[in-house]
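Protocol step 4 of 5: obtain the predicted structure for the target chain.
Materials: sequence only (see below). No template structures provided, no constraints applied. The aim of this step is simply to have a reference model before the mutagenesis design in step 5. Sequence pasted as it appears in the construct record:
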Amino acid sequence: MIIKQDLKLSKLDQKKGLRLPHSFTEDLAYLCGVLAGDGGIYYREEKKEYYLQCAGNPLDEKEFYDKVLFKIFSEVFGIQPKMRLLSSGEIYGFRIYSKTLYLFLTKTLGLPSGDKNLNLKIPEFILKEDSLLVSYIKGVFDTDGCICFKRKKTYPVISVSSKSEKFISMISQELKNKDFRFYEVYNYKTKDLRIKKGYTTKSIIEISGRKKLKRWLEIYGFNNPKHLKKLKENYK
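Step 4 output (structure tokens):
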């Protein structure tokens, strides 16, 4: 599918090497899923700044950012993102300043700006093609998802959570369309003393069992090295 847009690159964008995709690809869909998980797209009024940020846990996701996301982002957008510690070392990833990229992501692709949880949803262009949807969901689970092994490390559980009830509901429907059966709960409250009200609210999907993991790997799989490491250690 061809992407219709009339955005023009600034001289600074051109100097950075930025290019905008001309078609909807699986890599672009994957990055949109990653942004839904670990990313944010922002406009800072006081400084007139437009920027994209994507970052994860520096303890176990550096390899994912340095090798996987660096390569895919460079191939899709032409920019080689500078990976580094952000927010006083609390997170690791990249930040790119560009009004053109901001407009492409928000206006052309329909990704949310600012507090994404208020408007987070699977973009329309992704819902129109199954291969894009598979890549998008893979990106979401590579970032916001988790895989663990319970019952003496023999029973796999794949899970994902979000503050957005609507977003989890959309993912749930797409997984059901692939004949997955799983546990789901919405607006579940968990204790969080960092927040003034003392708790945070999340919606959760949990896919359990070896047969479902096998099917997951056949359809979606993982790119994140920390997930792949757990599989190598526990799934035979």
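Step 4 remarks: Strands lie at 39-44, 49-56, 84-86, 91-97, 145-150, 155-162, 183-191, 199-208. The longest strand covers residues 199-208.
Proceed to step 5.
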